[in-house]
Amino acid sequence: MSDKSLELRKNLETKGLDALFITNPANQRYLEGFTGADCFMLATCGKNYLIADSRYVEMAERECRDAEVLPHRAPNPPLQDVLSRLASGNGLRRIGFERERLAWGLYDDIEKALGGVGVELVPTSSLVEGIRAKKTEAEIELIEAACGIADRALDDVLPIIKPGISELDLKVELDYRMKIGGADDVSFDTMVLFGARPSQPHANSSRGARLKAGDFILIDYGACRDGYRSDTSRTFVFGKASDEQKLAYKTVLNAQEASLKKVFPGANGRDINDIALGIIKEAGLPAFGHGIGHGVGLEIHEEPSLRQNTDVFLEAGMVITIEPGSYKPGWGGIRIEDTVLVTPDGCRILTRFPKELMEL
Ligand code: ZN
User: Are residues 79 and 127 in the same domain?
Assistant: First the structure.
């Protein structure tokens, strides 16, 4: 059993569970190296089982570190029968499931079948995600590689930013540069927003939105390397920035730098959030409604979540974002975001694209 599976076993024992039914593909990948989708894992205290339909059986057998691969779906038995057989054969009485990751229809099917063999299904949270929050050296290397690819790709697309280019065109170019630069995928749907549109912190890039002088350009994007992700936001001004744009930018940058200084083992996410919020409010700017940051790894949003009114304590080895912003409908928005590693004595910023205001 891998170290990661052994840690999960400890979590199962603490919760009095005999096994965990894993539907989150990122957790399957973390524990077994399996990169497929739509499959199921049963992690027992002694062994992992990966339950795959015919599309994924060969892949699972090739990729899984230790798991036994079991086929399901016609001509094989349905998932619920495979699970009941495993439960009976291994004497499982209490099986946890991932409460945020199991659709009702599937829950209903397996609950009926497992109930029939005397198994109780127990909702759980974070049993694997909690382990994933602290990264290994190998994971940090991959995230750092992803950050480097993202930095270079943004640098590469700057020359094509010209009047009239659409948000969608710039997005496609940036995605392409990341992929030919070594990314196996993008981290998430790249966001390129012009003009006043960045007041919507998360919006879709549009074919119709075309760049003109004085526009804000907000880019939120990331590269994915062997499953591990980066997350960066940068805001530029196209042409000369107005005094108002300059002042707002400086404020958000100050807020980000103040938050970064608060990132160290033992720091509370709430404090990291509040210092940025305070600086932005004090300058009379609209404050961001999202959290100051989130964990990044196999998923773009993972633990820990750093936000208002929430105590969460950082540990060395966590990789998080720090991303304050300010958004005003009709005017625009600014967000400055880096991916950051918590180190024993503070933090190391993994995304290195410059942050002083660039007037393109
Ligand atoms: Zn982010």
Answer: yes
Q: Domain check: are 141 and 240 in the same one?
A: yes
Cβ burial of 135 (10 Å; 0-12, 13-18, 19+) is: buried
Torsion of CA 270, 318, 221, 187, to 10 degrees: -130
- Identify whether residues 115 and 146 lie together within a single domain: no
Please state, as a whole number, how many other Cβ atoms lie within 10 Å of the Cβ of residue 342: 23
CA distance 175 to 184: 11
What's the gap in Å between 32 CA and the centre of ligand 1?
A: 26
pTM: 0.96
Residue 163 shares a structural domain with residue 127: no
Ligand 1 centre from 231 Cα, in Å? Answer: 6
Distance (Å) from CA 337 to ligand 1 centroid = 7
Q: State pLDDT tens for residues 93-106.
A: 999 999 999 999 99
pLDDT at 211: 98
- Do 205 and 191 meet the contact criterion of CB atoms below 8 Å apart? yes
CA distance 244 to 256: 18
Q: Which domain holds residue 246?
A: 137-349
197 and 316 assigned to the same domain: yes
What are the distances in angstroms from CA 141 to CA 137, 146, 148, 315, 317? 6, 9, 11, 18, 12
